[in-house]
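proline dehydrogenase: structure, please.
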Amino acid sequence: MESLMRNAFLFLSKNRTANRTAKKYGLRFGAKRFVAGEQISEAITAVRELNDRGIVVTLDHLGEFISTTDEAVESMKYCIRTLDEIAASGVKANLSLKLTQLGLDISRDLCLSNMRSILEAASRYDNFVRIDMEDYAHNEASIELFCQLREEFGSTIGLVIQAYLYKSEEDITKLHRYQPNLRLVKGAYKEPPEVAFPKKEDVDNNYIRIIEQHLKNGDYAAIATHDDNIINSVKTFVKANNIPLSQFEFQMLYGIRTQAQQQLADEGYTMRVYVPYGDDWYGYFMRRLAERPANVGFVVKSMFKS
Ligand code: FAD
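Here you go.
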């Protein structure tokens, strides 16, 4: 049943008509729990509240189904505007983005040029930009673009590696020459067994393996998970191997396990919350429901409230 619901939500997340309709009607059906707002001002307010509690942020201006150059350029401008607002307000936040938002499916050159504009702004502000990792079809192109931009912009840029992919251990070995700042995640997309571990247990084991590999390499890790088993295993590993607190951070999503977020921050770990905002919230919201169909109960309740 749970796997059926997961597939249904992942299917719905790709529905363009539903996406367009959702945009018209604004944040609904409990999406506000996972999305900070439609406007940058609302996002900055959410960041400030988190900062006040000792939690730092990565902001994501949501965008799905980019199919024209104009849309990709518009998206690039939103990213720069987000960096401008972070600098102007003085909040502690960096930026996360997706390469398809910036035109990766239209042309590599368009995407590269948009990324350069964003990274120039980030460098000016001494800030940091992380490329989120999308589905397997975009994996190699994302890694390749990251390598080029890392050479041009140094430590201003970071990437994400997904534990469910068989290739990730090898990717981390290859990427080590760049001393990359990597966010390590389990992986959020539906991938076939030809490329990804089908069993959760194998994903979890590989996740721990690549976290330890990356930390032992001496490179910076953003460990993005809500899973206590993984978090506890990281805590034990860093203690046993004298990994300094400055070499890693924990990350969680806005609205998910907020008490656990606070507890990690209070324990002295760097805790960064991924805060999405914008009117293109529908696909992101559906993917969050796919991850945890138990949240559907909460959504149904909020439908009756609104
Ligand atoms: P799971 O195995 O899903 O869950 C483990 C346990 O965590 C659960 O048993 C439960 O106790 C708790 N939990 C999980 N979800 C919830 C919830 N909604 N409410 C309450 N408890 C919960 N994926 C990508 O493919 N690319 C990315 O770029 C990417 N970036 C991410 C950035 C951040 C900051 C985070 C946190 C995740 C990101 N992900 C990304 C998603 C990631 O790949 C997983 O799909 C997602 O984090 C769920 O896996 P999990 O590690 O939390 O563990």
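Notes: The pocket of flavin-adenine dinucleotide is lined by residues 132-133, 160, 162, 185-189, 224-227, 251-253, 256-257, 274, 291-292, 295 (CB under 6 Å).
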